[in-house]
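Hello everyone,

My group is preparing for a crystallization screen and wants a predicted model to guide construct design. The compound we'll soak is uridine-diphosphate-N-acetylglucosamine. Before spending weeks at the bench, it would help to have a computed complex in hand. I've included the protein sequence and the ligand's SMILES below. Output in structure-token form would be ideal because that's what our pipeline reads.
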Amino acid sequence: MMSKFIVRGGKRLTGSVKVSGAKNSVLPIIAASLLGEVGESVIIDAPPLDDVITISKVLESLGAGITYQDEVIRVNAEHITTCEAPYEWVRKMRASFLVMGPLLARCGRTRISLPGGCAIGTRPIDQHLKGFEALGAEISLGQGYIEAKSNGRLRGAKVYLDVASVGATENIMMAATLAEGVTVIENAAKEPEIVDLANYLNAMGAKVRGAGTGVIRIEGVEKMHGVEHNVIPDRIEAGTFMAAAAITGGDVYVEGAIADHLGPVISKMEEMGITIEPDENGIRVIADKPLKSVDVKTLPYPGFPTDMQSQMMALLLVSEGTSVVTETVFENRFMHVDEFQLMNAEIKVEGRSAIVTGGAELKGAKVTATDLRAGAALILAGLVSEGTTEVGGVQHIDRGYVHLAEKLSGLGADIWRISTEDQSTEKVSKKVASETEDAKLFKVQPTWV
Ligand SMILES: CC(=O)N[C@H]1[C@@H](OP(=O)(O)OP(=O)(O)OC[C@H]2O[C@@H](n3ccc(=O)[nH]c3=O)[C@H](O)[C@@H]2O)O[C@H](CO)[C@@H](O)[C@@H]1O
Ligand SMILES: C=C(OP(=O)(O)O)C(=O)O
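Reply:
Good plan to model first. Here are the tokens for the complex, ready for your pipeline.
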């Protein structure tokens, strides 16, 4: 069903909001479940996201048993019927490519559709393939598929990544768990989701050391088994709520947010004059003075996350002064700029940097989410715009945010979701007039139960 978010600006957010499990943890963790030859895996705090459905469909198509209920996913991968991942699902979501490492390790061969490029950049997979080759796999490409074969078990090796790629680190780490001997990944990505995956693999019987540092050492084991695991909270969803609190001059407790995972986001917000009070269960964000502009440069973890760049830009639009936002991770991640401009923002893009003139008087407009985080950022801008903002492209937002409209309206925002089928302007304005009624009617339902 086609739908869009409607946001009416002007409400200060207060109260408490709970963060869901991390999308970028649960996806590799579900893929890693393919390594469990004995028993079932139980993945707790699995967010009901469209991306989670997609990767579950991939596992299902491989013959694994997979069920989802109440944010718990059960995977039984004792019997896999095929080691080929079909175009149908891999094309839908890039992270489906994460099944390649586990399948290669488990089956000794795999064939998988090439993941598409996407809006934020070309996103090559050369580093994944370089790693598989180092472990002894023979790679061939043809007809939109990649085939990898190993002669018997993969063999442990040293792999130096040219870029600290999150996906390549995960894929190679998973492939290496069942290899013969020791694999060392150098210039590995250090994201908290890599550590979560390593913890999961180790509980399954793998021997992974050093996750969270630039050098990861994996000693291959013969067999792995299913386990129970709790997914870490989503640091990007948490950061998005922190930004929502800050942009509205609010006072919000983000329950489940882990300050250690949000170092650069917290530092930048503090520089902007926002009060951040972390405790052991979450982070309180208080914005009681005008925001100051800051410069931001995205970098691999522990640098400022690219997945928070557009939300940060929304904050900078309404801060005092001029800011420079530099995107170094993806080459095409400024598409929200054009949409912000429709809302009366003043931004100039020069190469990899966007120069943001603060103090904008944002005005509601019809805008489109060009990717997941761009969508979140447009909603943030809508929260402080004059009038009503309609955000289309909701399918991107559904990839990564659970019940976003409900969570924000729980903090006092005027936001709801409408179906755009047979929708006329008249119907939209009626909904604007009676948002409380409609918020109930159009509460976001998990699409997968
Ligand atoms: C599901 C998931 O976890 N997604 C996250 C993951 O994506 P993903 O794992 O795809 O991102 P990578 O870390 O791999 O990409 C980082 C950079 O490395 C480049 N690259 C990557 C692989 C490769 O083989 N060759 C290569 O050149 C990419 O084009 C990009 O410029 O990390 C990104 C960077 O933090 C986040 O924005 C995504 O939300
Ligand atoms: C870019 C993102 O995700 P993905 O790698 O799944 O596209 C994101 O979460 O912002």
